[in-house]
# Entry
Amino acid sequence: MSRARLGIFEGKKAVYNRAILKALNNYGPLSKWELAKKLRDMLHPSISGETAYAKSLKIYSVLIRKGGRLEELLKKEFITKVTSNGETKYALTIKGLIALYLHKPTPLLLEDLVDRMFTVIERKLGCEGYFSNLPQLVQLIFRQPLRRLLESVLHDIAYKVNIEYISKVELEDLLAIKLMENITTFIKEAEKAAEKHLSKLNVEEKIKTLKALRYVIEKVMEIKRGEIRELQATLNMLIELRMQLVSVLKQLKKVNKRGELVGSSP
# Structure
């Protein structure tokens, strides 16, 4: 995948923006001062003592000033604020993680995205915490097809969407929709992976694996049935509106008995 062009990774601000996203991905939620020190270590690893402290202060000012790096990244939803033990910290959003991956794809970033996407899929299927509570070997069965599918979806997004201009929620919805569109492929690959690993599983793990596959399929079918019901409801509404229109036009003597417009071209 060629690198996607993102405004946050262009110009003088690029170095800080990239370092901020990397630090939050590697070290989890950080306070402003913790983040400043991490950036100092990442960008100036050879300095120490008073020089290191002075450099941290300088980086801190770049982060917190009006129109600074934190303000821009927050506004564009690449990062978010969280509260930890009563302290405000900054965390990477899935949008920020995708930005890092699209800028420079690596296997480790893809694995991080797979973890995030399990959470997105759980929300979409209405089964929060389901995948994370499965045995580790069972989780691996789902990871391989999700990894391959996610890589393909991100490649598509890189060429068609500038993620800077869509919200975090819209991006999550877009990913979920793309994955749901290919859910049949996902399930088939998960079934193949399950068959490959079944010999390594004990009886209890085999049962959990098969139940997990069945559960996902049932959840997907519920969504598909829901979509069909919505489409059917929309179709019924359109039919009803058409009948009302025909009735009005008949009163105006603009249609014949078959409901066709009089004088209209075939």
